[in-house]
Amino acid sequence: MKERDWDAFDIATVTPEEVAELEAEWEKFFLTLTKAQFFQGCLERGMLGYPVATVEDIVADPQLQDRGFWNPVDHPELSRSITYPGGFAIFSDAPCQVRRRAPSIGEHNEEIYVGEVGLARSDLAKLKEANII
What pTM value is reported for the model? Predict the structure, then answer.
């Protein structure tokens, strides 16, 4: 690996055999690191790299924890709360946050189909009976 001319390396011209050889060496190296060590090494060297995160990693991410990204949202129909991700950004004048739970399947059917689309309630009932909605 040290003898390879990385400045002249062109991934577009590498053969499948060379890729397999490189990946075998990289695998040995990456198996010696934790995700945190890998990421810290990337930061120290100014390299582009980020470990693949599990759901558990994302929930425990210190940056997301510090900015209060995770929000418990009450679900009375389940007699519990569920943790939702928060807003994609923090704004000083207009909070970007979860205001309520996601709707249940069919919860707003009448409001949408009758109120906005203009179907008669009897047509909505027929769609429901036919398992269309």
Answer: 0.54
